[in-house]
Amino acid sequence: MQGRIHSLESFGTVDGPGTRFVVFVQGCPMRCAYCHNPDTWDMNGGTLMEPSYIIEQYERNLPFYANGGGLTVTGGEPLMQIDFLLDLFALAKEKNIHTCIDSSGIAFQPDNAAQQEKLEKLMKLTDLVMLDIKHIDPEKHKDLTKQPNTNILKFAEYLNEKNVDMWIRHVVVPGITDDDKYLFDLGYFIGQFHNLKALDVLPYHTMGVKKYENLGIEYRLKGVPPMDKGKLLEKKKVILDGIKRRRAEMEAAFFVN
Q1: Could you say which of 3, 6, 20, 253 is the most buried, measured as most Cβ atoms within 10 Å of its Cβ?
Q2: To which CATH superfamily is domain 3-256 assigned?
Q3: How open is the CA angle 136-81-141, to the nearest 5 degrees?
Q4: What pTM value is reported for the model?
């Protein structure tokens, strides 16, 4: 089983715990307004690669991944190539490599029995899922990504049910995803999950604008300034307040029952 790969990165430092070997897969149904990799959208692009080739590339720099690092597959959307992931992660686990998927969750299909069977197998080979929740509000999510968030939120619930460690990632975009109401709602939603291991609140940046120009694609956030990194902590605190509220309510309900 070959995968359509956009690129490989040997020394990723923001793609999971430790130093990571990062596989950027090709193909994504999302059209996030702030996506900095629009060149990964095309489902038919990229270079075909065998899982064994990727593991060979990983092992070339093995000492760098020894202290808590591992292999991360991002994109694009990794779960669009679930058969490839199954083969790749099976090889990785044979070599005791920590495996991580960085996903938007958009490919989750709870009513697709065949896909669910494959996903069940994949989750047994997956140590961590980094789930990017773009917006907690359904309509604003559609405006931002051109896709609904219904199954994305169900995917978070699924990961919790399967006891797969989960990191939540959220990009804060001025005037779009920085509203305190929705940040609190996001925190309240993820506060219910026992498998939540980390929360990454990331600043919106404009480093990908040039790619849009080169590809002849309109950049929908033209004129939106980069997020002030100094405000990130206060925005993260709002999400954390939502988490605390949900967990306090769950604890109170537990003692009542």
Answers
A1: 20
A2: Aldolase class I (3.20.20.70)
A3: 15
A4: 0.94
Q: Give the pLDDT confidence score for residue 257 in this predicted structure.
A: 62
Q: Which residues contact 212 (CB under 8 A, 6 or more apart)?
A: 38, 218, 219
Question: Residues of the chain whose pLDDT is less than 50?
Answer: none
Among residues 51, 49, 35, 66, the alpha carbon closest in space to that of 7 is found at 49
Give the closest residue to 29 by CA, choosing from 84, 80, 81: 80
User: Residue ranges of the domains in the chain?
Assistant: 3-256
Would you state the structure tokens that stand for residue 194, as one six-digit string? 């026992």
pLDDT at 1: 85
Distance CA 134, CA 27 (A): 18
* Amino acid in position 74: T
Q: Omega into 76 within 30° of 0, i.e. cis?
A: yes
- Adjacency order of strands within the sheet including 3-12: 47-49, 3-12, 20-25, 70-74, 99-103, 128-132, 165-172, 196-203
Question: Alpha helices, DSSP H only, in 106-208?
Answer: 113-123, 138-145, 150-161, 180-190
Amino acid identity for residue 63 in this structure: P
Find all residues with CB under 8 Å of 112, minimum gap 6, and list them.
Answer: none
The answer to whether 135 and 181 are in contact (CB under 8 A) is no
pLDDT score, position 67: 85
CA distances to 39, 79, 84, 219, 233 from 223, rounded to whole Å, are: 21, 32, 39, 9, 24
Q: Are 78 and 99 in contact (CB under 8 A)?
A: no
> Do 190 and 243 meet the contact criterion of CB atoms below 8 Å apart?
yes
Tell me the C-alpha to C-alpha distance, in Å, between residue 171 and each of 29, 64, 135, 223, 229.
Answer: 18, 28, 9, 17, 11
Phi-psi domain of 46 (left: phi exceeds 0; alpha: psi -120 through 50; beta: other)? left
